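User: quick one, sequence for these tokens?
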């Protein structure tokens, strides 16, 4: 495996609407192309560990920081940056512009958590450009899923959810329990003129994130990335923006599965994923004849025990004869 910490190629790509996305490439330039789509929305690439999910001697791995986060510009942590041009349809266009920019005919599409939603949306828009799809911690960002992760899962973590909801109730954005969606209240809070209000909301959002992914992840622990205020603000703002609009997906992904006909897919999901229950992965698999569902009984939302299966699945896409 290539242990070089420097990408083989990287750059900034103008994708229109005043946005430039940071992209990078690892592995063999002659290898089978693959694109990795990060989670969030707004998590960015962060470290480059994702590349270890591929055999870099046989794969040309590409990824990028999605609009508004990471090294892409402008950055969503800046409230003056409008999110009007930050939707799933525009992210899909960014993926396609990057493919064209790099001269890639078709590629394996990998997506993690929110990235799995984006991977499915891209594949449904451009099925002829997809060699295979690998989804890890499967989501489709439907209203049911969003309402579960922001409200329903409070049945599992009632103390933490009470804190999250109480903050919104006392923040002066017109939210009260049973009246309106909590995610919409946080979307409004992350657009507040008062920087202290935005910071406080982002802190509460970050605490809730760490809480609802704790099962199957070794228990509650703080993500060190929250110490970076710029990261935390962009993450909370973008996540609330996308989730309050049900991922900007109309019709929902599960209603367009016929567009994936003929594309092979592997769905990796943890049984103990409380944030995104396995029901979504199961429903997707049932409607998608070309898919294979692998459930890890001990893993949660993006745990470590499925990493080998992730790499094995990519290897099978690169060399189907050995699958």
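Assistant:
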């Amino acid at each position: 495996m290539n242990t070089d910490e420097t990408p083989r190629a990287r750059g900034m790509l103008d994708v229109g609407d005043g946005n430039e996305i940071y992209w990078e490439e690892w592995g063999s330039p002659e290898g089978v192309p693959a694109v990795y789509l990060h989670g969030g929305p707004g998590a960015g690439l962060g470290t480059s560990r994702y590349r270890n999910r591929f055999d870099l001697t046989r794969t040309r791995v590409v990824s990028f920081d999605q609009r508004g986060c990471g090294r892409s510009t402008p950055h969503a942590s800046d409230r003056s940056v409008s999110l009007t041009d930050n939707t799933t349809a525009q992210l899909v266009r960014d993926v396609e512009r990057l493919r064209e920019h790099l001269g890639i005919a078709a590629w394996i599409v990998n997506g993690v958590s929110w990235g799995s939603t984006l991977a499915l949306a891209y594949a449904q828009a451009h099925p002829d450009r997809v060699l295979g799809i690998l989804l890890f911690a499967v989501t489709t960002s439907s209203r049911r899923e969003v309402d579960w992760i922001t409200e329903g899962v409070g049945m599992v973590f009632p103390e933490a959810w009470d804190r999250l909801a109480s903050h919104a109730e006392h923040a002066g954005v017109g939210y009260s329990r049973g009246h309106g969606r909590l995610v919409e209240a946080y979307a409004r809070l992350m657009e507040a003129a008062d920087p202290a209000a935005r910071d406080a909301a982002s802190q509460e959002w970050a605490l809730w994130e760490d809480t609802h992914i704790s099962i199957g992840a070794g228990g509650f622990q703080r993500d060190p990335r929250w110490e970076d205020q710029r990261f935390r603000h962009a993450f909370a703002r973008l996540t609330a923006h996308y989730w309050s609009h049900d991922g900007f997906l109309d019709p929902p992904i599960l209603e367009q599965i016929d567009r994936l006909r003929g594309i092979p897919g592997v769905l990796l999901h943890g049984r103990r994923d409380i944030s995104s229950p396995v029901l979504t992965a199961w429903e997707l698999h049932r409607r998608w004849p070309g898919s294979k569902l692998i459930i890890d009984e001990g893993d949660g939302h993006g745990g470590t025990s499925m990493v080998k299966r992730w790499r094995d699945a990519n290897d099978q896409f690169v060399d189907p004869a050995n699958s």
